[in-house]
């Protein structure tokens, strides 16, 4: 999606303060992670393990970042996959990939001597879409395998596995996925408000020489509706303009031009897919 460029530069472990805005989502996620952080207490109180957290919201808002930060926060190994990787022509291949994914998480945790593992599945709707009546869909088996793996997670199994899934089409999901003991914790990751946009801009401006007169607050004001991924692009494009202009710093005019560029880019993307 829009965030591909930014994604490749991220380290695989990052902390919550590298995520701008999203204060409510971050708080809800940290609270949900308590069961991993406070394992003793959780056990004593007889709380059943939380197995699945569903992150919902538009593309490029930081869902992947949240999953990585969750892994870091809970001292877990992190493994990621995307729903589309499980779609295969041959029946059973998707299911066997799910098995492999969980196996990988266990092996990695053992190797790194960690008690917890976070498995992140982006685009969960691709495998977890509503099953329409009796119609057999080729990836029913994949979804069933995921449910089986989740049902197999118990308080005493090591590593403790937490699955974080993301979708921007929550209403498409099969209710079986949302039942208690599965993805029963939902966190909305929304487009950032002005304050959120400013904090995202500040994070991505850290490694860029901004002109003294550059005003990120104004940029935050003028980027209503932009996702975090788009804001990252604005700074990157602005830096490219600065390079072309043989400037040593990124100036306000570069940032303003970059806003237009990113907005136009979105438009041509959309036209291309129509
Ligand atoms: P998708 O649904 O397209 O996979 P996503 O919600 O998982 O999107 P991320 O992959 O987490 O989005 O974000 C893409 C990139 O956008 C990040 O690598 C980062 O550079 C930037 N970004 C997005 N949201 C934020 C944020 N809240 N704070 C800082 N950077 C962000």
From TrEMBL:
GO terms for molecular function: ATP binding; ATP hydrolysis activity; ATP-dependent peptidase activity; metalloendopeptidase activity. It is found in: Membrane. The keyword Transmembrane helix applies. It comes from Paenibacillus chitinolyticus. Belongs to the AAA ATPase family. Residues 49-193 form the AAA+ ATPase domain. The chain holds residues 57 to 330 of 506 of the full protein. One of its GO terms (biological process) is proteolysis. The keyword Transport does not apply. This is ATPase. It comes from the Bacteria. Keywords: ATP-binding, Coiled coil, Hydrolase, Membrane, Metalloprotease, Nucleotide-binding, Protease, Transmembrane, Transmembrane helix.
């Amino acid at each position: 999606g829009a965030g591909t460029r930014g994604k490749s530069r991220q380290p695989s472990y990052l902390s919550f303060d590298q995520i701008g805005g999203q204060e409510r989502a971050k708080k809800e996620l940290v609270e949900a992670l308590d069961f991993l952080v406070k394992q003793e207490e959780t056990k004593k109180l007889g709380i059943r393990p939380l197995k699945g957290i569903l992150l919902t919201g538009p593309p490029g808002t930081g869902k992947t970042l949240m999953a990585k930060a969750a892994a870091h926060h809970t001292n877990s190994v992190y493994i990621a996959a995307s729903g589309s990787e499980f779609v295969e022509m041959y029946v059973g291949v998707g299911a066997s990939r799910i098995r492999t994914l969980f196996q990988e998480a266990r092996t990695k945790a053992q190797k790194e001597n960690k008690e917890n593992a976070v498995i992140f599945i982006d685009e969960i709707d691709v495998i977890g879409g509503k099953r329409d009546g009796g119609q057999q869909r080729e990836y029913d088996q994949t979804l069933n395998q995921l449910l089986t793996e989740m049902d197999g997670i118990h308080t005493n199994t090591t590593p403790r596995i937490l699955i974080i899934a993301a979708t921007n089409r929550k209403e498409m999901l099969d209710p079986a996925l949302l039942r208690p003991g599965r993805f029963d914790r939902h966190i909305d990751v929304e487009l950032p408000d002005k304050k959120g946009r400013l904090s995202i801009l500040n994070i991505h401006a850290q490694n860029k020489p901004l002109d003294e007169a550059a005003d990120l607050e104004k940029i935050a004001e003028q980027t209503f509706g932009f996702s975090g991924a788009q804001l990252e692009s604005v700074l990157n494009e602005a830096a490219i303009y600065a390079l072309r202009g043989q400037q040593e710093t990124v100036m306000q005019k570069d940032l303003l031009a970059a806003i237009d560029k990113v907005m136009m880019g979105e438009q041509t993307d959309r036209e291309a897919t129509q």
